[in-house]
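Dear colleagues,

As part of the handover before I leave the project, I'm documenting each prediction I ran so the next person doesn't have to rerun anything. This entry is a single chain, and its sequence is reproduced below.
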Amino acid sequence: MSAWLPSAPCTPGACVERTGAAAAVPRAVLRLTAVTALLLAGIALSPLGARVPARLVRGWCRWTVRAAGVRVRVRGGAAPVGGLLLVAHHVSWLDVPLLAAVRPARTLAKAEIRRWPVAGPLAARGALFIERDRLRALPDTVARVADALRRGQAVAVFPEGSTWCGRARGPFRRAVFQAALDAGAAVQPVRIAYRTGAGAVSTVPAFVGEDTLLASLWRVVSAPGLVAEVEVCPAIAPGRHPDRRALAQAAQRALGGPAEPESTR
């Protein structure tokens, strides 16, 4: 394992609230069934690729999150067209469909996701995979992201490189911002927050540490009244910042994160 590999101090035992009771099991099973059905529908339609209207993709992403029992609130303007790097802090597997609800995008994802049941085959249709423990593979990954941006595609990335619980956030790694500079593409910061029905920050959706996908999914579908707040912040236009350090800092400031991104890579 490379020493540079991003990691977070968050763990399920220390950070994640527990929820759900025996009375909630039937509701949770129904939600889990609905999510699975929507994912299978996505797999069936994925060979159509760009022929599926963006409006339908955005709707499917919101339906998937809503099927898990999470209400979605989106505010802010529409994301720009053309090559676009969408960036957000990373809390949950829910972040991916929420970003795609803003604008359908190819996600830069860790290679292990290929092995996930149901979601793995769907991700494999359009994701750009990164082997996080191979530092030597990083320049090729940045080049592939830049190429997608040049072709007018949107790419969704989580520059922390690891999930955090939602109460704490990590510094942004700079490398992926080089792709936006190389391609002359705008950067679109998107703020995602998970809350209870009463408005307090919730860590229930967090997918951290040694958490398994199934455990995290069950926790979400068992929880009452979860809300996902998605704010589309002003886009950072190409040429506004001279290097990836400054661009990463600007994106992190827009999302209310630490002022200084990670000093390595």
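The two ends are 16 Å apart (CA to CA). The chain has a mean pLDDT of 85.

All the best with the project,
I.
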